[in-house]
Structure formats: C-alpha cells, structure tokens
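Lecture notes, unit on protein representations.

Consider one protein chain, 1449 amino acids long.
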Amino acid sequence: MVTCELIDGGQLLEAARFKKDEDLLRRVHSDDCVAIEVRYHRSCHRDYTRPLSRRQPDQTTPTRTSELYPDAFDSFCRHHIERRIIQEREIMRMTRLRKLFDQAVKDVESADSSNYKTWSLKRRLRRRYPQISFLKPARRYQSELVYTDDLSAEDLVEETTLLNESLDLPSSDDDPEDDHEDPDSKEEALPLPATLQSRYAAAMYLKGMIDNIPADTLPWPPTSKDLTIETAQRLIPHQLFNFLAWMVGASTDPEDDTFVSTNGSQNRRILTLSQDIVYLASKGKKVMPKHSSLAMAVRHLSGSSQFIGLLNGFGYSVSHTSVLEHDTAIAQLEVKRGGDTIPANLQKSLFTTLVWDNNDFGEETLSGKGSTHNTNGIAIQYNRSNMESTEPVESWAGGRKSRERSMPEPENNIVMYKGTKKAAPETFPEGTNMDLQHYRSSMADQRRRDDVYFMTKFPGLRLIPSWTGYNQLLSSNVPEKATLEYLPAVDASPTDLNTVNTVLHRSVEIANHLGVPSIVVVVDQAIYAKAQTIRWQTPLFRERLVIRLGVFHTTMTALACIGRRFRDAGLQDVLIEAEVIAPGSVNGAMNGHHYNRSMRCHKLMAEALQHLRLQDFLDSLPQTTASTYVGVLASLQQVFPKESFSVAVQDETFQELLTTYHEYISSRSSNATYAFWSEYLKMVENVLLLTRATREGDWQLHLASIRAILPYMFAYDRINYARYLSVYWFEMINLQSTHPFCLDNLQQGNFAVQRQGTHGFAKIACDMAIEQTANRDSKTRGGMKGFTTAKGASYRWTRTHRERAAITRMCEDMAGKCTKEATGADLTESRMTKDQRDVKNIMDTINSMVNPFDNDSGADAGDLIHLSSGMIAPEDVREDLLSAGSRGDEAFTAFAECRLQSDNVDLNKPLKKMSLKTFSGGTSKAKVTRKDTPLLRNDRELLARLIIISRVRKIDLRKLLSYSLGPYPAALASYDGSLVKTNKAKLLHLLEDAPPCSPLVDVPSGSVWIVDGMAMLQQMTPKAMPTTMGQLANKILRQLVFLARRHSSHSIHFVTDNYPAISIKGAERKRRAASGSERIRISKPDQPTPKQWKKYLANNFNKEQLVNFLFKSWAMCEPSTLNEITVFISHSEDCHAVSVQNGSVKVQQIKELQSSHEEADTRMFLHALYISKNCSNPIVIKSPDTDVFVIGIAIAPDLNGSRLHFHTGKDENTRTIDLQAIHMHLGDDVSKAVIGLHCFTGCDSVSAFYSKGKSKAMKLMMQHPKFCQAFAALGTATIVPAELSAVLEEFVCKLYGHRDCSEVNDARYVMFSTASRSENVMPPNQDSLTQHTHRANYQSSVYKACFIQYPTLPSPVDHGWKMIDDCLGINWMTIPPAQESILELSKCSCRKSKCKQPEAEDNCCSALQLPCTELCSCKNCTNIFELHEESDDGDDDGEDANEEESTFE
C-alpha cells in the first residue's frame, strides 16, 4: 500500500470530482489526506485515475455530426446514462442505448436520427462520462456492454450472465451500424475488473486442481500408447483448460462441468500450455505426455543432448537423464518380451523375411583401428492384419521405475564355423528349362506395357509422368504396408565366415520362435557367397533357410553392365551434352553405384531413343498411314490415365501399330548401329522389368527378368554375379520341391516391401529396405553416431528403435505435425516438366551427333558408328559389341550344364573372363609396360646380364647395340609408341631473353592483327561459354572487332587449320583426343553449345563445321557488329573478307589467301605477306605456339618493310615481342637455322630426345658453326644428303656428351659399357636416328614453305612415316629390334639336372652349348664358368656434370 503525500489527494480527488463519486468525495473533500493517512494500491490508483488521461480538450470548432441534436442528447444522458447506468449501476447494450437516443431525438427535437452513427454516439458519451466503460463480447453478433467502471466483478459477472441468457440468439434490435467501429477509437476492450482477492482465489483453486493430479501420471515406462493427446486431455483438469481457453479467447462459454469446445489447433496448444503448467507446478514430478514424448522425439530425430537440455531448461521437456532412463527401461522390457535376439513385436506363424547387410561406420580413431563394422538386420512380415494373435501380449504398464541409464553390453556369441571355405550345392535337375526365348515370351505382355508407355509419351501434347509415376497412376491395387522390425546387430563384419555362420544360426532361432517351417534370408552378393557355402554344408540350414540375392544390388550390377557396354559408344557424351548429368557425376551413373541417378539417366535415354526409333518408323510409312497412327497416339495420350485408357490400348488400330512397328524393327536389325542401340533398349527394358517385378510383387516376372539379365553378367565379366546369380536362379526355380511354404508366399508378392499406403506400384527390394531404414538410421543424426564403440548403447538403440519411432509419431500428432505420405516425386509437375525437357534435350543432342535410327544417314549398314564421334568401330570391336548377348548366353548355358546340373566342373573353379572389347577398348592405346613386352627390357638388370654374358659367351655387344633393344627407340618414343615430348616454350624463353635489350614492346598503334583461330577457341572456358552456337559466333566476332578497334586497326585476320584425311599431325591430334571425342553437327544458331568443349574440339569434323558456321554467321551479322572493321576468315582452303560497304555487310573472296596449308602455324605468315604487300602497317601475330614464334624469327625481314610482332602469354604474362629485334641479334644464319633445330629437337609432329631439352641443343649449335649450317640446310631439299645426316649424327653424339664419337652406335656402346644407364638415356641407334632426321627435314620444309599458297610437298610416306591400316603412322625403324632369342640366352632355370647333358632341359644353357652364369637360377650347376676379375678401364659416360641450360650471348 502507498500512503498519499498530497493534502488534497491530488489526482485522486480530481478523478472523484470528474466521476462525481460522492462516496469518495464525502471522505476526502474536507480532510487532510496526509493527516488521515489515505492509502491505496498503485494498480488501484492507476485504474481509478485513468479517465483523466482520456479527457479531450474542448473543441472550438465542433464536428458537424457529433454535436447534432444537443437538447435530445442532454435529455438522453439525464434519464439513461446518469440515472440508470451511473446511479442505478445498470448494464446496458450499446444497441439498446442507440434506440433510446433515437427515441429522445424524436420526442425532444421531432427529428429522424436513423443516419446518426453509433460510434459517434459512443464517442460523445465517452467524452462526457469518462467513468463509464465499453466491453466487447467474444461473440461478434452481440453488441458492446456499457457500464460504470466502479461496478464490482461479482455484480458484473452476474449481470452479464443474466444478460447473455436472455440473448442466446442475435437480437432483432441489433443495429447493423454496430459493425462499423469508431475510427478514432482503437482501444482494446477493457478487462473485467477484479479485486486482488478474486484473482488470488481463482489461482488457488486451479492450483488445488493441479495438486489433485496423481503423482504417477503415466505408467513406467510410458510407451507410444500412453504418450498421446488423448492421455494428455485425460490428465489435465478441465477447469485449468477452460481458464486458459477463456484467457486466450479460444472460448467464451461459461462451462464448469467439462472441457469447453475449441478448434483443433487451439485445443492442442492449450493442452500444451496446460501440461507445461502442471509440469512446472509439480517441479517436474508429474511428467506429462508432452514432456516425455518431446524429449524422446528429439533424441530419436537428432540425438542431441544439448537440444534436450535447452528444452528442459525452458520447461518444455524432461531432462536428458530422464530420456536415457526411459530409453533403457523400454529396451529392458523389449528384451524381457522377446529375448536378446528376437523383436518382441513379431507375430508368430507368419511368413517372415530377414535381411542382413554390412554396416561400416568408419569412425575417426587415433590409430585407424577400432572402427565399427557390424552386421545389421531387419525382419519383414506381411499381411499382419489378417492374422489373429493367439497369444495375449504382455502389458507394458505396471513397471517399477528404475534409475538405470545404460544397458549392459550384450554377449557377442559368435558361432564358430568349422567347415570348408568353398562348397557347392547338390546338382540341380537337368529338366530345368534354361531357354532364354521361353522366358522372353513369358515377359511379352509386360514388355508390351512398356511399349505402350513409350508410345503414350511420344506426341508430347501434355505432361505425362516418367516410367514410375506412369505406372503408379495406372495401378489401382495398393498392397497392405509391411511391418518392419530392427534386429539386434551382430557385432562383427560379415566378411568373416564366423559372422555369417552366426547370422544363419540367429535366422533359424527366429524361425523357431515364430513357429514357421522355413524363413527367407536376403543378403547381398558378398554375404550370399559365404552364406551359401555354409548352408550347403549344413543340413539344418538347407532345410530351414532360403537365401535370396538382394534385387537392389543385382539391379546396380545390371546397370553397370549397360554402362560398360554403351558408355564409350557415345552414351556418356550424349547425357553430358544434354545436361542430364554433370561430368563429375557420370562415373557413378555409368557404374550403377548412384542407383537413382543411374536409373533416371537410362530411363530418359531409353525414352529418347524409343521416340527416335518410332519417328523413323513413322517416316518410313505412307503419309496417310503415318497420320492415322499419330492420331491414335495423340488420343491415347489424351485419355491417360482415365478408365478409357485401357480401352484405347486394346483398340484395333493401336494393336496394328504395335505389330507393324515390331516387324519394322526386325527388318532393320541388319543395320549394325540400329541393332546395337536397339540392344541398349533391350538391356534397359530388362532392368525395368526386374524393377516392375519388384514393385508389383510378380514372382514369375522376377525369375524371367533375372534369366534375361544373366547373359550380360558373363559377357561383361561380372564374375561373382555370373557364378552366384546363376545359382540363385536355379534355386528359386526349384523352390517347389525344396521349400513350398516359402514359394507360396513369394508368389503372393511377399518378396518385396510395401512401405507406404497411398499408391500402388511402390514396393521396393528387401535389400533396399534395409539401406533406407536400419543402415541409414544408424548413421544419421539420432542414429548410433557417437556411441558405436559403446556396445551397450548400440544394443539399446537397436532394441528401442521401433518404440522410439512410434513415440515420435505420437509427439508429431500432439503438435499437429503428423508426417504425411508424400506423393511420388515422379508425379509432381516440376519433375514431369524437367523429365520431358531432358528427353527433348537428349533427342536434340543425338540429332546433332549421329542418330542411330536414321534411315537416311548414308552409312554402310555393316558399320557400327560411334554415337558422338562418328567413328566406325573396328571389325573386332564391332563383333564383340553386337554379339555380347548371345555369347554371354552361351557362357551361362555352358556354366549351368557343367557346374550346376552336373559335377563335371567345380562351381568355385575360376571363370575365364570374356574381355569383350568396347569402343574405348578397341581404340585406346594398350597399357603395356616394359615388363609385358617379350622383347628385351631396357633396365639395369638386363644391361648387367648382357655385360656378364658378354664375358662368358661370344656375343658382339657393339653389333647388338646397333639395334633397338625394344619395340620402339627408347630415346625417341614412349613405351606405348607415342612421341617423346619436351617443353617447347623453353626455346621461346631462351630466344626471348637473348638480345641485350629486351624485345618486349607495346602493341604499335594501327597494327594489323593475325589471330590463331583454333588457339582462341581452345582457350575458351566453360564458365564464359555462351548458351548457344549463335551466341558463341557473335561473341568471338565481337572480341575480334574489339581487339582491332582497341589498337586503331581497320582489319583483323582469323586463321584456322585445315584437316586433311592423311596428316603428319595425326599422331599429335590423336594424343590430344586420347580422352575421347564427340561429333556434333551444327544445324541452327540456337543449338546449345557443347558442354564438353575440349572433347568437342578433339574431333576434326567438329572443328571444320565450327569454322564454317562462324563464317556463315559472320556473313549474316548486323553491320553495327563489325563497327567498320574488315574481318578476314580462313576456312578449309578458302578465305573471305567480311566488311561493311554502303551500310550492308559484304563478303568478298580473297584469292591471294587461298591455300592448301594444313596448319595455321604457316598459313598465318601467308596472311602476313598479304598484309605487307597491301600496307606497311606493323603486323601482330597472336598465338601461344612456339612453332609460330620460331618461324616468325626466321622470316621477319621478308615482309616488305612491315615490322612483325608476336603476341603471347596469359594474364600478367601477356606480352608482345618484336621478332625482328631477335632476328637482328641472332643474325641471318642462326635465325634460319632455328627452324631446323626446333624440328630436330621436338615439335608437334617430330619427337624430342629423351631428357634432352631445347636449351642444351641451342647452346651446342651456337658453339659449332657447322651445326648451324646443317640446321639451316634442313628442309631445303626433299631428300636428306648423306653429308647432312652425318653432321646431324655427330650433333646427337655431342648432345649426349660424347665429343669423341661421330656415330651414335659407338656412343651407345660406350655408354653401355659403363653398365650404369638404361637405353632411354642412350642416343637412338643409327637406323632410328635416320628416320627421325627424315621427319625433321619434312617438317622443316613445311615451315619454310609458309609464303607459298600451294606448296608442292612429297608424300610423308618414306620420309619418316608409313601407312598403317589406311592411316599415317610413324616409321620408327627400318630394321627389326634385337632378337628375342637374346633374352633367352640371358639365363636358365634348371632345377634337377644340374645342367648336365643329356638330362638338361631344352632351354638350359648347356643344351645350347653355353656356360651358365651367376644370373642363372639353376641348382647345384656343374656348367658354371669361373669369371676372372678384369680392370675396368671403360670411359665415363661423357655427360657434362656441370652443364647448365643458361642463355647464351
């Protein structure tokens, strides 16, 4: 209480006067408020004086409406407001007062006030009488209550109740104007006035109700049946619930005997608040369903103890400790009901499938040891609603609460296996039908359903879901959801036979517990092999267990077979170019590891190919027939998925279309490419049929599709699946005689799992079910992460998972967030749109490459053409690709007859791989090592052998070393026959740094630019790549124009290569295209740019097409794009100038620039000569190629006064080099010799010398004028003179450090004699060097003819090259390498004969009349030759140890 400090009471007296409160005025008016110690509560004083704050200042200009009818308003106030409401404390409704006011206006002023607003009257009353209050009732149809604010709460409630009882329905007196609120009054309705005593009494009453709630609100441990919203409503006092409902405005019903009525969301939230209040009032001793279930749900979903701690701190849930106690108690009761290994919720006498799988966690441990590898299991039961439990389920309630928070570690009773590691089943009956055609016929109806699907989607008139969604819409049968229970994990990896033996024993134990004669066990292939090995040796297991291979893993392997066969035939390139899959993800899709991504890729590709094949069929028909069929397909699409769809499918015309279509496919099967990609469709269809069998639960289709897939397991060397999938198929075919109980249930579809109940065609494979449940749950948040090494905690997690999940569902229901079963992803509009767009992109991409079903392609019917590159497969590759299915089927039949239907061959005997070639296998370089070659190996061991042999046997090493010791000269060729490469840029840097004054200059103004066009295209990055080919052409043109304008030039030259069929650069281009290429036709400007740009440019056809497309696009560009710049573009052997004349684009052929040059390297200098003849402007060649730089130095002075520059480098290394400055520094002789030196020491078409760079060769040439003259002469004649060859041979000897040798064979012998070098660091033999010199001479002649439009050059054949299979290949040597017999002479390996004649083996040294050496591995040899030590006076290797690759003066 606060004591008044003002004598007159201050605002208290003022408020009493304002309110005309005679009682208070009588008490304090004439007294000293301080003296009489007036006291009041602060809240009461604030409420009493509040009207003073609502007083409004007098208005000098009254509003037009509020001051109407003043006399009537005064009379109305005296009789009704002052007398009835203030003095008599009557409560009246605003509608009633409004009618009384209207009557007063009529009586006093004889006027009509029907248009007077109710809110105007209310404002007028509040201004005159601040002591009256207006209360808005909860019911909208009722008018406001008007009363004096000193009315007691009891009187107000009583009067209001009486008033409401008389107004249960909307009053006829209600004024429609009541709906219009006072725009100037936005105050909320005042709360009911209440004394502190009444509020305190209400709170104590509710607290008493809470105290009456029993302490043991929930049984221990509470289960999902206890933690429900119904339980919460049963526990909460309705008085507390009603009070909160009234307080938050959820209800205004004055109900005292039961719960007031609220809507669903309000009911849940009020129940939540009520439980929080009870939990708080009892200090957590009375646990409510919300608090227990919320904590358990958080543990189940996230496993976060910190999150549970936060919720507990706010009073929203129990503590983390309580959750652990709850979880442990549930696990203990689960064990009590079902034992250590059997879930308590499994029903007896019901067919059950057990699924086991490996589960690796791979935790981070300090040593890498101790990570968890266990074996997860689930149990699946079907049709449980049809079973009546014959045994009452033990009640969970009534348990005594314990404080245990952990489970003891379970005993890991591993059952040791004592059998053999390999075994085989008993032979299967010979009468088993293995004919593939028989099973294909049995799948004919299902195949036809897929044909209908592809044809339904063909017209593309409306969105149709992809294969899965399509079948779901047509499926009316929704199977009952299967029950799935988690099995306790076996704490050991299934890679061990003992673990698998334990799994099988547990499976039998579960079968015994359930009382079923046999049980199905599903595993992946790795476990299957071990499980069957054990089962075949254990009669109990053979009788009680049926072991199945997981369909999910089998499907992944089938997808891998498709990828293996078709990936490198263009499938990968098409999918990437169509943007169906990213390049970084393509491996997972092709090998089947990314299952969903792989399935989607093949579905879309198959759909696109089916549409292309169908379009080809329609194009072959007469126009009238084709139009009829298209109309049938359109109508089919329009009625999908209505009931009339099935009628349309049976339509006679449609059936005729199907028959004719398949006859046409058969007639085109002689075309290799057509047949090959039809095989792709067949393989994808086999996978779809296997998937359909699973989704529909069709057991016979499952067996037939497995039989259709089996041949490809053999054909593409999936050895484990070839062996064990065959066994699986035979066992399942013969189940009738071995396990009829299991067969009956499998035929009912109980081999797959239905996990949702919204639509059919949704079953999944059992091994996929364990991946989606137990394996995934254990590794996600809320799983076993973080405590996998705590075996007791892992055991508890497994045993309580089902109940925790059920509690979580109850918590979600309590929150109104029940998980709804989502519609299939394939049925969403966004997914259908994307799928349709991707199919169209695939079709467009194939049409831009090679359409395998194009009847007018012009290709030979026998040619198998690569889809993206257009390459024709070699004969052996073609044969392997086309016959894979038949050869695989033959292998399966032979395997089954020899190993399964008879015991002629052991099942476990190794299977020979078929190693069928594919496009990549038939065209890529063979991966050989020196160890693999039958010829002499170029290693130190061999050289040491030859040294030893030379001492004891008569071998002329000097003559031997005149041969190459391998199939290729090691100094010039890599082990696979490719050119030895060197860093060409070192020569550029060396020459660039040669002049004392830097040759680097700024680009001269007015320079004419010559751009290496293909280098410009090669340097484009995917990030900067335009979307379409038209945009690409426009971008390149703008870049060229900008470059010219930037340097005040009026023209620019865009020069590209020419691509003849036979080229000396073929080997280099093949190397650059080693990662593959793709062939794409450019048909229109809006065609998308290739996504694999480097692979696209690796194909000569593409580059020719691209350059021609650029020319055509630039010829049709807008005049403004050229911006007064003339662009010269060379394409093929032509050259045109594109310029603007008289406001329009003109194209002019430049005959002086027509040429047969193959490379832009030389053709750019023909353009430079043309420029110099027409003007004296500086010339800038833009190229990154050292070859161009070298040619430019040589010919710089020959350009009629135009100064030549070379622009190269990237980013901060970009620079412009004055080539004439370098030429002047080097002099004419050296400048002319640089071309020959560059070609001789390695360029694109000529190999380098192994480990010999450009710098050392340049320095050596500068030191000897005769070498300079020799290199200047290289390329001036077609035939290399003998004198020139001799000088170059001497140069090579000195290059290898042998100044005293003039012949390379002598240098090789000297280096070999040291026994310290391999052949690749020796110079090549004379024969190989001669061929190398011919190649260098030919390339030099090409470079030196750069000013000639049509140079006359001889054929490269016999000039270092030769024809190999109609292609130009390198002629490394004209004499064969060293004899293979020399290798045989190096050692022998007799074991028993002691190398005595005649007992010695045929390949023994003594049989060859040769003594053995210490290299031989013979035992107790008597043919040994004693070696005598000799002084080693051999020369050193002649290498200059201090040699530096420095610049020269």
